[in-house]
Specification:
The structure holds two protein chains of two kinds. By secondary structure, chain A is mainly beta. Chain A is built from no helices and eleven strands. Chain B is mainly β. Classes of the chains: A mainly beta, B mainly beta.
Chain lengths: 116, 107
């Protein structure tokens, strides 16, 4: 069965960076891209970025341009999202999702808390 | 970017009733519109893709319709497990965008 398993919760100070992993299984990694979506406490869903697991092409929301980087490790079928220069309003649950016909499988989410 | 506006913000209904949720796009998204359900503490779940196609394992009481700028998610008869927040999403043009959500609550 398709699974996306994310790394654990993180607590960071303002200005730091965080790198969240998303390990996939149950399907051919290169067959579908991966999107990252975040959700601040009590808020809606916000799409951040997408990566092609086939060729590494990326697309970033303008809001995160220059602050977010997506990478993949095809040998372990794992996607990564790094967010730099963290601010308090980056506190959110970060999700990876398989991007097929819609976001059909999601990771369990990773809570990133940013506080001094 | 394409703005998706969902209505209503909250829908108060009883089990067994029909739920009709709307999503309007600021410009045409063709049929590249999906619907997601999210329960507290859980990741979203894809219900409908490409406006009217049920995702794998989604019950037949969920249906989607529309094209262009106006879309509807219908739940024909609400089950207790259907009370949740629903989001629409467009993937017609970058950036992907979501609506603000409609909460379906028990009346």
């Amino acid at each position: 069965q398709v699974q996306l398993v994310q790394s654990g919760a993180e607590v960071k100070k303002p200005g730091a960076s965080v790198k969240v992993s998303c390990k996939t299984s149950g399907y051919t990694f290169s067959s579908s891209g991966i999107s990252w979506v975040r959700q601040a406490p009590g808020q809606g869903l916000e799409w951040m970025a997408w990566i092609s697991t086939y060729n590494g092409n990326t697309n970033y929301a303008q809001k995160f341009q220059g602050r977010v980087s997506l990478t993949t490790d095809t040998s372990t079928s794992t996607a990564y999202m790094e967010l730099r220069s963290l601010r308090s309003d980056d506190t959110a649950v970060y999700y990876c999702a398989r991007d097929s016909l819609g976001f059909d499988y999601w990771g369990q989410g990773t809570l990133v808390s940013v506080s001094s | 970017e394409i703005v998706l506006t969902q209505s209503p913000d909250t829908l108060s209904l009883s089990p067994g009733e029909r739920a009709t949720l709307s999503c309007r796009a600021s410009q045409s998204v063709s049929n590249y519109l999906g619907w997601y359900q999210q329960k507290p503490g859980q990741a979203p779940r894809l219900l409908i893709y490409d406006a009217s196609n049920r995702a794998t394992g989604i019950p037949a009481r969920f249906s989607g319709s529309g094209s262009g700028t106006d879309f509807t998610l219908t739940i024909s008869s609400l089950e207790p497990e259907d009370f949740a927040v629903y989001y629409c999403q467009q993937r017609s043009k970058w950036p992907v965008t979501f609506g603000q959500g409609t909460k379906v609550e028990i009346k």
